[in-house]
Design goal:
Largest sheet: none
Number of helices: 9
Strand content: under 5%
Structural class: mainly alpha
Number of strands: 0
Helix content: over 70%
C-alpha cells in the first residue's frame, strides 16, 4: 500500500511533465501510423489484384518487423539525426505490415457479385474502388490501423534512447538510476502510462470506426 501511495504522490507531483511526455508519445506514434496508413493502403490497393507482387511485397514489409527495435531506431540516426525523426521513421516501418495485410484481405473479401453489380451500373474502375471496394473493406483496414497503433505506442518507448521524446524518457531515466530514490516510480510511470495511452487510442479509433463505417457493415 505504501508503494502505491508513494507512486501516486510521484505522479501528482510530476503530473505536468508526465502529461507533456504523454502528448509527445501520442504525437510520435500517431504521426508514424498516419503516414503508414496512407502508404500501406495505396500499396495494398496496387498489389491486391496482382498475385505476382502480393507475396514478395508483403514479405519485404514483414522483414521490418523482424529487425530489433533499438537497432532499427539507431539505423535512422545517421540519416535523419538524433530525436523524434528517427523514431517516427522506424515506427512507420513497423506500422506498415498490419495495415497492408488488412487492406489486401479486406479487398479480397469484397463479393465478386457486388463488384459485377457495380460494373453493371456503369461504374468505372476508380468509382468501383472509391465507392464500393474500399468502403466494404474499411472495417478490416481499420482493424489493421488499430493493431499498428498499439504496436507503435508500445515500441515508441525506445524513442528516448535515440534522443526522442515520449514516456520512454521515464523508463530510460529509471534504468540509468535503479536503486536510487524514485527510480521505481519512474519505471512504473512510463510503463503504466504507455499502457493507458494505448488503451485510450484504441478506444478512440474504435469509436471513429463505429461512426464512419457505412450503414449495413456495422456488426
Amino acid at each position: 500500500m505504501d508503494v502505491l501511495t508513494d507512486w501516486l504522490t510521484y505522479v501528482q507531483t510530476n503530473f505536468d511533465f508526465i502529461l507533456e511526455e504523454t502528448i509527445n508519445h501520442a504525437r510520435i506514434s500517431l504521426t508514424a501510423v498516419a503516414a503508414a496508413t496512407v502508404v500501406a493502403v495505396l500499396l495494398g490497393v496496387f498489389i491486391q489484384p496482382r498475385p505476382l507482387l502480393r507475396a514478395p511485397v508483403q514479405s519485404i514489409v514483414g522483414i521490418f518487423l523482424t529487425i530489433p527495435s533499438l537497432a532499427l531506431f539507431a539505423l535512422f540516426v545517421p540519416l535523419v539525426g538524433i530525436g523524434n525523426s528517427a523514431a517516427i521513421a522506424a515506427l512507420f516501418l513497423y506500422a506498415l505490415l498490419p495495415i497492408l495485410r488488412n487492406t489486401v484481405a479486406g479487398l479480397d473479401a469484397v463479393s465478386p457479385a457486388v463488384v459485377e453489380s457495380a460494373k453493371g451500373m456503369g461504374m468505372n474502375r476508380t468509382q468501383l474502388l472509391l465507392r464500393v471496394r474500399l468502403p466494404l473493406a474499411y472495417p478490416v483496414i481499420m482493424a489493421g490501423v488499430r493493431v499498428s497503433t498499439l504496436l507503435a505506442v508500445s515500441i515508441a518507448a525506445i524513442a528516448a534512447l535515440v534522443g526522442g521524446d515520449g514516456l520512454g524518457t521515464f523508463i530510460d531515466t529509471a534504468l540509468g538510476r535503479l536503486g536510487l530514490p524514485n527510480s521505481e516510480n519512474q519505471l512504473w510511470t512510463g510503463t503504466i502510462f504507455i499502457v493507458l495511452l494505448g488503451l485510450v487510442l484504441d478506444i478512440v479509433l474504435a469509436t471513429v470506426q463505429r461512426f464512419t463505417t457505412p450503414r449495413g457493415l456495422k456488426l
